[in-house]
């Protein structure tokens, strides 16, 4: 964007994203930056994270595990040398398997409802769905082998989580025109 060089120094931390909430008169009332911070703030404001700090921390640790898996996946996709790619892929694969194992246990412990926590859409459900959508659909333009690796590692419980989140009316209204993750993991 041509205006970015001039606007960059005005941004908190000198980068995007930035969330600006405005007061009734249109002035900036609240400004925060950093994508995970914005994500967690919005999850709290909209009731997707519990008020209890311990219960919220249980969901936030899932997000942090997903972030770690994503770091290795991104590193693998961007790596230039084969030795580096191999090492990053192995770390991605190991953490991906850990994520699926942890989520499978949480879903089972939650009565196999297709939810990680409780009986309604949660922050952990939403970020998990977004992560799997990136792994199964979004990454294809960079590396078509990743979905083929990931798909067989998904348990029936994680597949049910994906289907439950995708069918949730709060999610469905935003994803109806996008590629179906359920279809991608079922094909």
Description:
- With 187 residues, the protein is mostly helical.
- It has helices at residues 4-7, 35-45, 53-78, 82-109, 123-136, 145-150, 156-167, 169-175, 181-186; strands spanning 18-22, 28-33.
- Strands 1-2 form a two-stranded antiparallel ribbon.
- Helix 3 packs antiparallel against helix 4 (82-109), helix 4 crosses helix 7 (156-167) and helix 5 (123-136) packs across helix 7 (156-167).
- The radius of gyration is 18 Å and the shape is globular.
Secondary structure class reads: mainly alpha
Instruction: Estimate what percentage of residues fall within beta strands.
Output: 5-15%
Largest sheet: 2 strands, antiparallel
The number of strands is: 2
Q: Give the averaged pLDDT, no decimals.
A: 94
Portion of residues in helices? Answer: 55-70%
Helix segment count? 9
Q: Return residue spans where pLDDT drops below 50 for at least 5 consecutive residues.
A: none
* Strand arrangement in the largest pleated sheet: 1-2
Tell me the radius of gyration: 18 Å
- Overall 3D geometry? globular
Pattern of helices and strands:
HEEHHHHHHHH
Distance between the termini: 39 Å
Quick description:
This protein is mainly alpha-helical and 187 residues long.
Properties at a glance:
187 residues, mainly alpha, 6% strand
């Amino acid at each position: 964007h041509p205006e970015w060089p001039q606007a960059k120094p005005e941004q908190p931390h000198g980068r995007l994203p930035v969330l600006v909430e405005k007061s009734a008169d249109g002035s900036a009332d609240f400004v925060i930056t950093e994508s995970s911070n914005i994500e967690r703030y919005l999850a709290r404001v909209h009731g997707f994270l519990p008020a209890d700090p311990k219960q919220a921390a249980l969901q936030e640790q899932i997000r942090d595990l997903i972030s770690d898996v994503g770091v290795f996946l991104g590193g693998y996709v961007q790596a230039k040398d084969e030795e580096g790619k191999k090492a990053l892929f192995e770390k991605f694969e190991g953490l991906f398997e850990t994520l699926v194992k942890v989520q499978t246990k949480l879903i089972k412990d939650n009565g196999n409802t297709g939810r990680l926590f409780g009986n309604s859409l949660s922050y952990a459900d939403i970020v998990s769905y977004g992560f799997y959508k990136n792994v199964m659909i979004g990454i294809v333009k960079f590396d078509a082998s990743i979905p083929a690796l990931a798909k067989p590692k998904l348990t029936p419980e994680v597949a049910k989580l994906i289907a439950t989140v995708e069918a949730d009316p709060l999610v469905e209204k935003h994803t109806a025109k996008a590629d179906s993750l359920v279809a991608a993991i079922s094909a």
